[in-house]
Amino acid sequence: MNLRDLEYLVAVDDERHFNRAAERCFVSQPTLSGQLKKLEEQLGVQLIERSTRRVVMTDVGLAVAAQARRVLSAARGVRDIAESFHDPMAGDLQLGLIPTLAPYLLPQVMPILREQYPHLKLWLHEQQTAVLMERLRNAELDLLILALPIPEHEFVEVDLFREPFWMAVSGDDPLAGRKQVSLNDLQDRELMLLEEGHCLREHALDVCLSAGASRNSAFQATSLETLRHMVGEGMGTTLIPQLAVPEKRDGAVCYLPFKKPQPSRRIGMLYRKGSYRADAFAAIGNSITHCLTL
Fold first, then answer.
1. In the chain, what is the straight-line distance between the N-terminal and C-terminal CA atoms, in Å?
2. What is the pLDDT of residue 109?
3. Which of 166, 146, 165 is nearest to 155 (CA)?
4. Together in a domain, 65 and 94
5. Is there a domain that residue 122 lies in?
6. Residue 188's pLDDT band (boundaries 50, 70, 90)?
7. Surface-to-core class of residue 118, CB atoms within 10 Å of its CB (0-12 exposed, 13-18 middle, 19+ buried)
8. pLDDT band at 80 (very low <50, low <70, confident <90, very high)
């Protein structure tokens, strides 16, 4: 058994297609298939059900693939530990972010991180909170940036910044001409929200309930951009995190900041306790916080 064989197995589990898995691993399909067959013979179990139409992982194949991910992550950790002795801010770092944050935060902070840590290679993963948490738990990711709080978790939690919400209304809404709004302006309005699974949905619901608004149960968006377009079409009102408010606006959507007290969400980092890269994570967090307070 070698690490390369485990990489082949994980690729097949992810792709469920031998040709795509082989392309991902930069080997020929016969080479990948042959090595996996040898791995099955070595383990004495069938990992993959093969047919002309599809690839299906057996139950033991799924379990072995899950363990293989942890082994590969540990192997990367060995390499990263060695690199960290030369430069703590060098090597690969697997960073996970939530979809309501990644497209708006990364363009601001990535140039700073590249400039300050030129030898650090960030691999970016954009997924919902529950998926990110599981991948951090399985050591597939090193660091998460997401909305807090997260109930009942076992990770180190670091606050980065608070992000205010803005109200988004259509250009012909009665509030569109205002410079600011208050929470009272949400009263009796129906807010369009993201679908379940997005933490922003829960934060927006909390604001709705406290301000006397209700949720629009007829529509659930898959992304902030969908919400933005629906508001622009005059379909309703929503809350947009400040980082997602565009500098250039077309007039179809009017973005209104709230007077104090502003509704907001906490943005922070999570990483595994005892991580040897804790100092590196702290440096990254300081860089992000400093970038957003300039």
1. 52
2. 95
3. 146
4. no
5. yes
6. confident
7. exposed
8. confident
Amino acid at 282: A
Higher-confidence residue of 198 and 193: namely: 193
Residue 83 forms part of a structural domain: no
Cα distance between residue 29 and residue 65, in whole Å:
19
pLDDT digits (tens, 9 = 90+) for 122-160: 999 999 999 999 999 988 899 999 999 888 889 999 999
Taking the C-alpha atoms of residue 69 and residue 165, their distance in angstroms, rounded to an integer, is 38
Which tokens sit at 98? 């939530």
* 147 and 271 fall within a common domain: yes
What is the pTM (predicted TM-score) of this model?
0.72
- Looking at the structure of the chain, the number of domains it has is 3
Place of tokens 């509704």: 263
60, part of any domain: yes
Find the domain containing 42 and state its range. Answer: 3-72
